[in-house]
Amino acid sequence: MQVTQSLDRTLDRTFAALADPTRRKILARLARGEATVNELAEPFAISQPAISRHIRVLSEAGLIVQRVEGTKRPCRLAPDALSELEQYLQMLRRALEGNYRRLDELLAKQTKKKETKGENP
Amino acid sequence: MSKMTLTTEGDTHVIVTRRFAAPPEAVFRAHIDPELIRQWCLGPDGWTMPVCVNEGKPGGKMRYEWSNGKGGGFFLTGEILEVDPPRRMVHVERMHMPDPSPDNHVVTTFVADGSGTLMTMRMSLPDAATRKAMLSTGMEHGMEASYARLERLSGWKAAA
What we know:
The structure holds 2 protein chains of 2 kinds.
Chain A: H1 2-18, H2 21-31, H3 37-41, H4 48-60, E1 64-66, E2 75-77, H5 84-117
Helix pairs in contact in A: 1-4
Chain B: E1 5-9, E2 13-20, H1 24-30, H2 34-40, E3 48-54, E4 61-67, E5 73-84, E6 88-96, E7 104-113, E8 116-124, H3 128-140, H4 143-150, H5 154-159
Antiparallel strand pairs in B: 1-2, 2-8, 3-4, 4-5, 5-6, 6-7, 7-8
């Protein structure tokens, strides 16, 4: 239960981070590769402190990571940020496996019924 | 050991294959007859499908409603595009969480495989936003936790 709640909080943060169009554009830029804060600020008509705030939100949501390189703080996508596809496929796989196991049982019951009734009931 | 395969095709489709120890006629029927669908297409342990509509013909409607018996639930609506018993069916479906997800286009084929059936299902891979919404709905309904209980389905087998 605690795990679910902490996952909920993570998802809340992720959704909040993704809700902003500027932050989505920053992510799209980072999907092409690492970039410095200045490079990220370039296409936007907003101040660098404002960009830094967006970067902090993305970083706290676990979507990007920053490293220190002299005076620069280049950003890149967090490796885990992409694993949501894996998470989705995992959820799908488990749901289907459960369903198909039940379907196996249902088909087995039908076959048994047919056998006891004979070929032409 | 698992008889199921799940693979992605590019970033737009998911392909699922599964073998069943029953002829295509039976497996096909289990996918289109509401009374059968509601017995297996349930997701986590403890969930039921109080409403199951599948009109079973081209142009026919689908509506599956799931409930956890504690006020939690969600539903799917869809339309059947093609039916070629017992070989193939094509439909579109969307999950309501409660906002409808983009249409998922699903082609399911059933091919005789020895005395059993090889089922192949090719469906749209939802976009990233939809995947996130589905994951979060799954979390909200405690599905991740419940899936673990599916592993104990042998108990269910004994009861069947």
